[in-house]
Specification:
Elements (H helix, E strand, L loop, with lengths): L12 H12 L2 H8 L3 H15 L4 E4 L2 E4 L1 H24 L9 E7 L1 H18 L3 E7 L12 H8 L5 E4 L8 E9 L1 E6 L3 H4 L3 H6 L1 E5 L8 H7 L6 E6 L2 H8 L6 E4 H7 L5 E5 L7 E8 L6 H14 L16
Parallel strand pairs: 3-4, 3-5, 8-9
Antiparallel strand pairs: 1-2, 5-12, 6-12, 7-10, 7-11
Helix pairs in contact: 1-2, 1-3, 1-4, 2-3, 5-12
Length: about 325
């Protein structure tokens, strides 16, 4: 008969400590998050290392990095903690007004710039002790089969609590909700000549700016143009949308931007928008969380708030010229 592990000698708080250090990648920040001293976290890590028989985290000049064993354990520990939190939540209902915790949300920058203002307004009113951490997520270059694979992986390890991704291809083990559909408009400085004649021929003559974290100048618009035997010159790439607004406000370049992002932020830069002169696909934005993690009443509450604050965008009316695609 195999010897059973004596769970009375195991401290569940050490798994909470493991989760904090794994997500923060820094002992000091994990200590602040757990409201402990750095020495207490270091002592707890020592106990955890002895219990699991592995160093778990290796020191670096910028913090710590997980070992292969820690990465291997991360998913199982995240699931254990999610289930424990779910059990405890059934004993004491989640009270957002009294809750003190944080959630990590991953999204492309143009999406987070849309959902953050209404979400923060609700949290300030209903849950002042809840903090939000936003991570920029991007599709994996060249992975046409599962471009958001990394985001799903981060959700399963609880590196993120919720991801908002422009994809409907979501594995069954995840809980998800469609928030809204997004299309693109063409943005330019006020007084730009393209604003007066936003036609396709003129569009192809312009100098274009493309938002690309990797610097790859080829995008989905180039694919749409190629179908019509057209092309454009991409004169500049920048890594994020806010930078794009600042550049086009002070140049003759034009740029395709998500419609809702532009509606919220273009005016402050003196940027105007026009409908795209060619048919572009719509993107469906889905909020996604691990199914097992939804047992956490706090996460379930935040997911509901997400749906409520974004619900009005589902009723968005697209311009008649932009035919909708399923």
């Amino acid at each position: 008969m195999l010897n059973e592990i004596d769970l009375s000698r195991a401290d569940l708080n050490l798994l909470v400590l493991f989760e904090a250090v794994l997500e923060e990648r820094h002992v000091g920040r994990a200590a602040e998050r757990l409201r402990l001293s750095a020495s207490a976290v270091s002592h707890g890590l020592g106990r955890l290392r002895r219990m699991l028989g592995d160093p778990l985290f290796i020191k670096t000049p910028k913090g710590v990095v997980p070992t292969a064993r820690a990465d291997e354990l991360s998913g199982a520990i995240a699931e254990i903690l999610a289930r424990v939190r779910g059990v405890l939540a059934t004993a004491e209902p989640f009270d957002p007004a009294r809750a003190i915790r944080h959630f990590t949300i991953g999204a492309p920058d143009g999406v987070s710039a849309v959902f953050l203002p209404p979400l923060l307004a609700v949290l300030q009113q209903k849950a002042p002790g809840i903090d939000i951490r936003v991570r920029q997520i991007l599709p994996t270059p060249g992975d046409t089969e599962r471009p958001w694979r990394a985001a799903f992986s981060d959700l399963e390890t609880r590196a993120m609590d919720i991801a908002v991704i422009p994809s409907g291809d979501i594995p069954a083990r995840f809980h998800h909700q469609m928030l809204f559909e997004e299309d693109f408009v063409i943005a330019m400085r006020a007084g730009h000549p393209f604003a007066a004649t936003p036609m396709l021929d003129k569009y192809c003559e312009m100098q274009h700016l493309v938002v690309s974290l990797s610097g790859d100048a080829h995008g989905f618009i180039d694919d749409a143009l190629a179908k019509q035997n057209r092309s454009r010159r991409v004169a500049l790439t920048v890594p994020n949308l806010m930078f794009a607004l600042a550049v086009i406000a002070d140049s003759d370049m034009i740029c395709a931007l998500p419609r809702r992002f532009a509606a919220l932020h273009a005016a402050r830069f003196g940027v105007v928008v026009r409908p795209a002169p060619l048919l572009l696909s719509l993107f469906r934005l889905n909020a996604v969380a691990p199914g097992a993690a939804m047992a956490d009443m706090g996460l379930a509450w935040l997911f509901d708030i997400f749906e409520q604050t974004m619900g009005g965008l589902k009723r968005y009316s697209h311009p008649p010229a932009q035919k909708r695609r399923p």
